[in-house]
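Design request, tokens follow.
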């Protein structure tokens, strides 16, 4: 059975698509594409239909990752049933997801960096800052790559 993961941020043009395509690369590099379904979405409607933000695309490209054809979409109540894990980038994303889903009875919602080891004090227990505002796409990359790597390590042997 496939593990279905949905990454979520505010607009689905920076952080969550970066996480989607980083995780897809990790899965592909391990030859496990048949075991995962990975997507991303927004909590807001602001960017629906827009492509990945140019600076986010550039940061992915620096690491040999493309994101062709990806456009922003908003989460829907049906996503809760469709995905096994719904991973937000920061607390505001979790709050907004609960506004759409109503509740989290199956414990599917988490923050990306909460999947890092507690001993990783640089990452664990905090959110991924929005590079749309900070303009620090390299910092977002570090957080997202670290979080996705930790999440993949947890899931690959399930």
């Amino acid at each position: 059975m496939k593990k279905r993961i949905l990454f979520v941020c505010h607009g689905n043009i920076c952080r969550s698509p970066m996480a989607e395509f980083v995780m897809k690369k990790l899965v592909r590099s391990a030859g496990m594409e048949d075991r995962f379904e990975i997507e991303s979405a927004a909590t807001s409607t602001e960017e629906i239909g827009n492509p990945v933000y140019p600076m986010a695309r550039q940061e992915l490209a620096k690491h040999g990752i493309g994101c062709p054809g990806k456009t922003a979409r908003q989460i829907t109540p049906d996503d809760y049933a469709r995905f096994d894990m719904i991973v937000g980038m920061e607390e505001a994303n979790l709050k907004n997801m609960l506004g759409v889903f109503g509740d989290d009875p199956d414990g599917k919602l988490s923050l990306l960096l909460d999947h890092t080891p507690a001993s990783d004090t640089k990452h664990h227990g905090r959110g991924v800052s929005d590079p749309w505002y900070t303009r620090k796409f390299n910092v977002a990359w570090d957080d997202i790559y670290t979080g996705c790597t930790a999440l993949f390590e947890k899931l690959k042997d399930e």
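Comment from the thread starter after seeing the answer: thanks! The mean pLDDT is 96.
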